[in-house]
Amino acid sequence: MKLYTATRAPNPRRVLMFMAEKAITGIDFVTIDLNAGEHKAASYHAKVPVSRVPALEFDDGRVLSETRAICTWLEGAHPQNNLMGEDFEERAFIEMHDRRVEWYWLLPIANCIRHTHPGLATLEQPQFPDFGTSQGEKVRESARWLDATLTRQPWMAGERFTIADITAFCALEFAKLMKFNPGAEGFAALQAWRDRVASRESARAG
Length: 206
Fold this sequence. Notes:
alpha+beta
Protein backbone atom coordinates (compact mmCIF):
# COMPACT_ATOMS: atom_id res chain seq x y z
CA MET A 1 0.00 0.00 0.00
CA LYS A 2 1.06 3.57 -0.67
CA LEU A 3 0.10 6.82 1.02
CA TYR A 4 0.53 9.88 -1.17
CA THR A 5 1.39 12.81 1.05
CA ALA A 6 2.93 16.29 0.90
CA THR A 7 5.36 18.11 3.14
CA ARG A 8 3.88 20.73 5.50
CA ALA A 9 0.34 20.32 4.13
CA PRO A 10 -2.22 19.97 6.97
CA ASN A 11 -4.43 17.23 5.53
CA PRO A 12 -1.65 14.73 4.82
CA ARG A 13 -0.28 15.54 8.27
CA ARG A 14 -3.65 14.59 9.80
CA VAL A 15 -3.36 11.10 8.32
CA LEU A 16 0.28 10.72 9.32
CA MET A 17 -0.51 11.77 12.89
CA PHE A 18 -3.50 9.41 12.96
CA MET A 19 -1.25 6.55 11.84
CA ALA A 20 1.39 7.46 14.43
CA GLU A 21 -1.19 7.37 17.24
CA LYS A 22 -2.06 3.83 16.16
CA ALA A 23 1.55 2.79 15.46
CA ILE A 24 0.54 1.72 11.94
CA THR A 25 3.41 0.51 9.76
CA GLY A 26 3.75 -1.30 6.45
CA ILE A 27 2.46 1.55 4.26
CA ASP A 28 4.93 3.22 1.90
CA PHE A 29 4.95 7.01 1.77
CA VAL A 30 5.13 8.79 -1.58
CA THR A 31 5.78 12.53 -1.33
CA ILE A 32 3.98 14.71 -3.87
CA ASP A 33 5.63 18.09 -4.53
CA LEU A 34 2.70 20.49 -4.63
CA ASN A 35 4.78 23.53 -5.59
CA ALA A 36 6.12 21.61 -8.57
CA GLY A 37 2.57 20.69 -9.58
CA GLU A 38 3.05 16.94 -9.21
CA HIS A 39 -0.52 16.61 -7.94
CA LYS A 40 -1.70 17.80 -11.36
CA ALA A 41 0.47 15.40 -13.36
CA ALA A 42 -1.46 13.01 -15.58
CA SER A 43 -0.23 9.94 -13.69
CA TYR A 44 -1.47 11.25 -10.35
CA HIS A 45 -4.65 12.76 -11.78
CA ALA A 46 -5.52 9.31 -13.13
CA LYS A 47 -5.41 7.97 -9.58
CA VAL A 48 -7.07 10.98 -7.88
CA PRO A 49 -9.28 12.94 -10.31
CA VAL A 50 -9.59 15.87 -7.87
CA SER A 51 -5.77 16.15 -7.77
CA ARG A 52 -5.50 16.44 -4.00
CA VAL A 53 -3.47 14.82 -1.24
CA PRO A 54 -3.56 12.65 0.77
CA ALA A 55 -4.56 9.48 -1.05
CA LEU A 56 -4.21 5.84 -0.07
CA GLU A 57 -3.51 3.34 -2.85
CA PHE A 58 -4.35 -0.30 -2.16
CA ASP A 59 -2.43 -3.27 -3.50
CA ASP A 60 -5.29 -4.01 -5.92
CA GLY A 61 -5.01 -0.54 -7.48
CA ARG A 62 -7.98 1.11 -5.81
CA VAL A 63 -7.35 4.60 -4.47
CA LEU A 64 -9.06 6.12 -1.46
CA SER A 65 -8.82 9.90 -1.12
CA GLU A 66 -10.19 12.46 1.36
CA THR A 67 -8.61 12.61 4.80
CA ARG A 68 -11.64 11.56 6.85
CA ALA A 69 -12.33 8.57 4.56
CA ILE A 70 -8.72 7.38 4.82
CA CYS A 71 -8.83 7.66 8.61
CA THR A 72 -12.13 5.73 8.69
CA TRP A 73 -10.50 2.88 6.77
CA LEU A 74 -7.42 2.96 9.02
CA GLU A 75 -9.60 2.91 12.13
CA GLY A 76 -11.43 -0.15 10.86
CA ALA A 77 -8.28 -1.97 9.82
CA HIS A 78 -6.41 -1.02 13.01
CA PRO A 79 -8.99 -0.65 15.79
CA GLN A 80 -6.44 -0.43 18.60
CA ASN A 81 -5.98 3.00 20.18
CA ASN A 82 -9.47 4.02 19.12
CA LEU A 83 -9.71 7.60 17.86
CA MET A 84 -13.18 7.78 16.28
CA GLY A 85 -15.54 6.28 18.86
CA GLU A 86 -16.19 2.91 20.45
CA ASP A 87 -19.94 2.79 19.73
CA PHE A 88 -22.39 4.59 17.45
CA GLU A 89 -23.18 7.32 19.97
CA GLU A 90 -19.57 8.19 20.74
CA ARG A 91 -18.73 8.00 17.03
CA ALA A 92 -21.49 10.50 16.23
CA PHE A 93 -20.33 13.06 18.79
CA ILE A 94 -16.66 12.69 17.86
CA GLU A 95 -17.55 13.14 14.20
CA MET A 96 -19.55 16.26 15.07
CA HIS A 97 -16.55 17.82 16.78
CA ASP A 98 -14.18 16.72 14.02
CA ARG A 99 -16.40 18.19 11.33
CA ARG A 100 -16.71 21.43 13.27
CA VAL A 101 -12.98 21.93 13.56
CA GLU A 102 -12.51 20.89 9.94
CA TRP A 103 -15.06 23.32 8.52
CA TYR A 104 -14.95 26.23 10.94
CA TRP A 105 -11.28 26.11 11.98
CA LEU A 106 -9.09 24.35 9.41
CA LEU A 107 -10.94 25.71 6.36
CA PRO A 108 -10.68 29.44 7.23
CA ILE A 109 -7.05 28.96 8.24
CA ALA A 110 -6.32 27.34 4.87
CA ASN A 111 -8.26 30.03 3.00
CA CYS A 112 -6.44 32.81 4.82
CA ILE A 113 -3.04 31.33 4.04
CA ARG A 114 -3.81 30.34 0.48
CA HIS A 115 -5.02 33.84 -0.38
CA THR A 116 -2.54 35.99 1.58
CA HIS A 117 0.76 34.10 1.76
CA PRO A 118 3.10 34.80 -1.18
CA GLY A 119 4.52 31.29 -0.95
CA LEU A 120 1.10 29.84 -1.82
CA ALA A 121 0.63 31.97 -4.94
CA THR A 122 1.68 29.10 -7.19
CA LEU A 123 -1.10 26.92 -5.75
CA GLU A 124 -3.90 29.48 -5.54
CA GLN A 125 -4.48 31.34 -8.77
CA PRO A 126 -5.81 33.93 -8.55
CA GLN A 127 -5.26 34.95 -4.93
CA PHE A 128 -7.88 37.22 -3.34
CA PRO A 129 -6.11 38.97 -0.45
CA ASP A 130 -9.25 40.68 0.88
CA PHE A 131 -11.00 37.33 1.09
CA GLY A 132 -7.96 35.84 2.81
CA THR A 133 -7.93 38.65 5.36
CA SER A 134 -11.63 38.18 6.09
CA GLN A 135 -10.99 34.47 6.63
CA GLY A 136 -8.31 35.41 9.16
CA GLU A 137 -11.01 37.20 11.14
CA LYS A 138 -13.09 34.02 11.04
CA VAL A 139 -10.11 32.16 12.52
CA ARG A 140 -10.16 34.45 15.54
CA GLU A 141 -13.91 33.94 15.96
CA SER A 142 -13.41 30.17 15.96
CA ALA A 143 -10.46 30.51 18.35
CA ARG A 144 -12.76 32.17 20.89
CA TRP A 145 -15.22 29.29 20.61
CA LEU A 146 -12.51 26.63 20.88
CA ASP A 147 -10.85 28.41 23.78
CA ALA A 148 -14.16 28.49 25.66
CA THR A 149 -14.74 24.80 24.89
CA LEU A 150 -11.34 23.87 26.26
CA THR A 151 -11.98 25.65 29.53
CA ARG A 152 -14.79 23.11 30.13
CA GLN A 153 -13.16 19.91 28.85
CA PRO A 154 -9.59 18.70 28.29
CA TRP A 155 -9.93 17.63 24.64
CA MET A 156 -11.82 18.79 21.57
CA ALA A 157 -14.47 16.08 21.75
CA GLY A 158 -14.60 15.65 25.52
CA GLU A 159 -12.63 13.59 28.00
CA ARG A 160 -10.18 11.81 25.70
CA PHE A 161 -7.87 12.47 22.76
CA THR A 162 -9.56 11.79 19.40
CA ILE A 163 -9.35 12.51 15.69
CA ALA A 164 -10.89 15.91 16.41
CA ASP A 165 -7.74 16.88 18.30
CA ILE A 166 -5.59 15.75 15.38
CA THR A 167 -7.58 17.88 12.94
CA ALA A 168 -7.54 20.93 15.20
CA PHE A 169 -3.84 20.59 16.00
CA CYS A 170 -2.72 20.21 12.38
CA ALA A 171 -4.82 23.25 11.52
CA LEU A 172 -3.30 25.30 14.34
CA GLU A 173 0.25 24.34 13.35
CA PHE A 174 -0.52 25.37 9.77
CA ALA A 175 -1.78 28.71 11.14
CA LYS A 176 1.81 29.64 11.95
CA LEU A 177 1.98 30.71 8.31
CA MET A 178 -0.60 33.41 9.08
CA LYS A 179 1.34 34.34 12.23
CA PHE A 180 -1.45 33.20 14.54
CA ASN A 181 -0.31 32.38 18.07
CA PRO A 182 -3.17 31.54 20.45
CA GLY A 183 -1.30 32.34 23.62
CA ALA A 184 -0.15 35.73 22.35
CA GLU A 185 -3.74 36.59 21.41
CA GLY A 186 -5.15 35.71 24.81
CA PHE A 187 -6.47 32.21 24.15
CA ALA A 188 -4.84 30.55 27.16
CA ALA A 189 -6.87 27.32 27.15
CA LEU A 190 -6.30 26.82 23.43
CA GLN A 191 -2.56 27.37 23.90
CA ALA A 192 -2.39 24.92 26.83
CA TRP A 193 -4.25 22.30 24.77
CA ARG A 194 -1.90 22.89 21.83
CA ASP A 195 1.12 22.37 24.06
CA ARG A 196 -0.30 19.11 25.43
CA VAL A 197 -0.86 17.77 21.93
CA ALA A 198 2.57 18.95 20.79
CA SER A 199 4.16 16.86 23.54
CA ARG A 200 2.74 13.65 22.05
CA GLU A 201 5.02 11.47 19.96
CA SER A 202 2.54 11.60 17.07
CA ALA A 203 2.87 15.39 16.81
CA ARG A 204 6.27 14.86 15.21
CA ALA A 205 4.75 12.86 12.34
CA GLY A 206 4.65 14.66 9.03
